Amino acid sequence: MTDFTRTRRAFHLPQGITYLDGNSLGPMPVAARDRVAGMMRDEWSELLITGWNKAGWYAQPRRVGDRLARLIGAGPGEVVMGDTLSIKVFQAVSAARAMRPDRRVILSDSGNFPSDLYVAQGLARAVGAELRVVAPEEVAEAIDHIGADLAVLMITEVDYRTGRRHDMAALTARAHRAGALTVWDLAHSAGAVDVDLTGADADFAVGCTYKYLNGGPGAPAFIWIHPRHADAAQPILQGWMGHAEPFAFDLDYRPAPGIERMRVGTPPVIAMTALDAALDVWDEVSLADLRARSIQLTEAFIAGVEANCPGLVLNSPRDPALRGSQVGFRHPQGYAVMQALIAEGVIGDFRAPDVLRFGFAPLYNDLEDVNRSVDILARILREGSWDRENFHQKAAVT
Q: Which residue positions does N6-(pyridoxal phosphate)lysine occur at (predicted)?
């Protein structure tokens, strides 16, 4: 049984704040401050460049990847860290498409995060492919309709705006029957729900670590390849660290074996040290317990809002089996309402055009957070205190 009281204590949560935005940026793990300070004091300061060998910086992307693997249903040696999520999306989709050279279509859905679609649009233009985007509920039918021309199914498992969760195993099986490969983005899944890439027989997966994994702003992304593809996948973006012998300084690229070929640039050692500290919290966490607590929190929040905030409309699936660990509600003045909430110490976020989005992170959110946020939201709506000029002025980051 996971001790969620213990995991909550592992995070710095500012006094007076109810934090429901871990699906955008997780709070700081208490251990991260000292871990990063120690790395800078004992490794960077004293070891200088010898830290790549003596402190294990060079091997850090695989070592940290192995720690993360359990949380996504992957095995040792199958995950590597580094770069940004957009880069990992490009690597995964380009490698998958190259493995189906006679097929033209990359299929995604309109609930995918726009950045993934931008990456796929650019790739499709460069290689003479076509990106086709359908509504989330139309993906299965589109796989069958495209059939033998489908190269890659590129899907974010949990919709960033609605929290709708795709059935990874079912869609992967359907894509495989059509002869296509799958790329799953786990940005809103890893650390939030019970992901099982191996059990779903997925082909490629990517994700970020600054949301539910609490690695810090700009924390490095990860990439996974099913072992059956690991020595065949050839990404278009080939970097120095993914070479079979980086320090031979060959002029021609030779891919490293397995997942190591998906390394690109120099690993961000300071950021990865913070992430390594964040992953300590997960050592005694059961994913089944995590999922059960997520459902408990989101169900309680939906019930509370619908009972006390009649002006809001649910923008997430009502069935928890079809939902990730976030809940959205719609309001015509959603941005202003969210700013009023933040001013009262309840931090969620806004997604255009009208969605108030609330992320529930089982490691540190509890029912007290649910009740407080519902009470304050209801009062703001009842009193109309959101309708102030400063709450309508949009900041650069919403």
A: 211
